[in-house]
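Complex 360.
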Amino acid sequence: MPDTLTSVELRPLVLPTSIDAPDAGDYLEMVRVRNAVYREISGHHDHAIAPDELLPYLPSTPDTERRMWIVLDDGRVVGRIGLDFPLEHESTVAFWLIELLHDAWGRGIGSAAYELVERTARERGRTVLQSWAEHPAAAGPQLSAPTGFGEIPHDHAARFYLRHGYALEQIERNSAFDLQGSFDVVERLLAEAQEAASGYRLVRWSPPTPAEYAPSYGWMKSRMITDAPAAGLDFDEEDWDAARVARHDAIHLDGGRLLQVTAAQHIASGELVAFNELVIGRDRTRATHQEDTLVLKEHRGHRLGLLVKCAALMSWRRVAPDSPRVLTYNAEENRPMLDINEAIGFVPIAYNGAWKKVLT
Ligand SMILES: CC(C)(COP(=O)(O)OP(=O)(O)OC[C@H]1O[C@@H](n2cnc3c(N)ncnc32)[C@H](O)[C@@H]1OP(=O)(O)O)[C@@H](O)C(=O)NCCC(=O)NCCS
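Predicted structure with coenzyme A bound:
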């Protein structure tokens, strides 16, 4: 830690067994600051999550080794640091985040946190470091992604990445769909998609994943990494066996969050070949998050993406009638997916940068 930052402490976060545990204080502060940071950046509260709902996402698993720290200034928690090491065979990558309250910016705290991130990743033998940040729209100079799609302002966070040797690889669009408006378009598009997808039928479930669907759902989850546009980012191939599907189920079940999986089943083979995931916390008046959506490569061209998305939204209107909107994220160069979202009525609300550094 630089001499000028004597009041600052980067403290490893020990996860409590529950939010009521006597040692849960640091964790609860971390969640409070996390939610406040996202609100400061985005201007809305839709990224917030309750402490007991976040907790199941955070422990290390057989798939990912996870380290976290809280950042304290004079004893006050002002931010957090997260560092993930995927545990796929011979992985070289690490994913990290540093999130500080606005009033702590510009004093070198982020750089001290970054030094810890890079040192820890090196010690763990990882050489490809990747990170995402929202860059709120702002006037002035912009940075373009090397994909040729999208740009972000040359803002404080962008300067931070560039100063620490990172390159902008991809822009991700964050879009929102108004769940309180008309569903006429969704209904019409669903009918069109059903007509084009005559060899497929829709299935839907919430965790626990029915045993009959676990293998092909696991296969589709593993294809998210290989079949979605990754620009210059590095991802390991993932193996989603039944145990990993069960761990994914448990995160939602343990936190009381509702996951709805809507999938298209290829009638001839019985395989699931396209899916969409919507998630909401226990408070059903809060925003909904769209997680993975994918059509397996061999089954593209039958409007299955439109089918699973529209069917999911139609069902969601009954599941969470008071949720105001759905948030989703897509690569800005992913035209086929953006076409679907735009047709349904999703509108862009923010842009994220995906940043990468290769250590020498
Ligand atoms: C991006 C982020 C982590 C940077 O943290 P930070 O503490 O502001 O970073 P630093 O203070 O180390 O560096 C920022 C600037 O302050 C300058 N600075 C550092 N120490 C300073 C000091 N003592 N006095 C004055 N300026 C200082 C740096 O030189 C740098 O200047 P630059 O913008 O011209 O490059 C922080 O803004 C943040 O949490 N943003 C929201 C979340 C986010 O976008 N995270 C990105 C990674 S996930």
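The longest strand covers residues 167-178.
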